[in-house]
Every structure is written in C-alpha cells, then in structure tokens.
Amino acid sequence: MLGVIGVSILVFLLFFLVGWEDSFEGDFNVPYFTSLLLVWMYLTVVATAALTIWSVVKGVQSTKGNDPAATTGVPGGKVILGTIVLLVVSLLPGLVLGFGESEFTAADGTVTSAAGVMVVDIFIWSIYILTIAAVVAVGVSMSGILTKSASK
Predict the structure, then answer these.
(1) pLDDT tens, position by position, 15-34
(2) Which of 4, 102, 111, 144 lies 20 to 30 Å from 120 when distance is taken between CA atoms?
(3) Is 85 helix (H, G, I), strand (E, B) or coil?
C-alpha cells in the first residue's frame, strides 16, 4: 500500500511540476507526463478490480459452511444489499440533475452529445456521494462501534 501511495505521489509530482510540451491541445499545452498519469490511473483501477475479485473469492472460500455474522457480528448479506442500494441511489441525483443537458463543445472543437454530458453528470454525482459514504464508513469502522455492538 505504501508503495502504491509513493508511486502515486511521484507520478502526480512529475505531472504537475515537470515542463510542458510545445504541442497544443486546443488552446492549452500538455504536461510531459500526461500519458504516465493516465497509464498509472488505468493500472491502479485494473489492480483494484483484480484484488477485489480475488478478495471476494477468498472470502467465500474461507466462510464456506460458517456463518460470518456469528463470528464477527456483521451480517454480510445486509452489507452487500446495502452497498448495492447505495450505488443505485448514488446514481439518481446525477440522473435527475442531468436531464435537459445540452451538448458540449470543447476548445478543440470536439463535441460531446447531450447524453454523454448527462452520463458524466451521473458519474460525478455518484463519485461525490460514494466518497462521502466511504469516509463515513471508514470513520465508523475506526471508531469500533460495530465491534463493540457485536461483542455484546
């Protein structure tokens, strides 16, 4: 984890602090390490997805025949259902606020359709909501509230 954080900091520092290419994208010039930043983002997303799948498989294998809720006090089925509901609910504000969007024309003349702009709105709102939920979940987890109630 510390290695990933270290490489991420290095990539961001390179992106923001090292020079700019002379080629222009529209009215803007491009940082030298734009491609490195994009590749690093793709690699971290793929690694996270692979580790998530691996973790789910290992978790299912380790709890075969056992009731994890009896051991930990955390009902896994309710957590999964709650996560799915939270994901669907997090998409709704962007969907509602995105209706009626007009197409967007970038500085270089690239046109994004109104539907594409609405999809971006949906995902941005979802990211905001899920980030807040993740921060709250980490705070609750670190507070020990769930483990205290499970041991009673």
Answers:
(1) 888 877 766 656 667 778 88
(2) 4
(3) helix
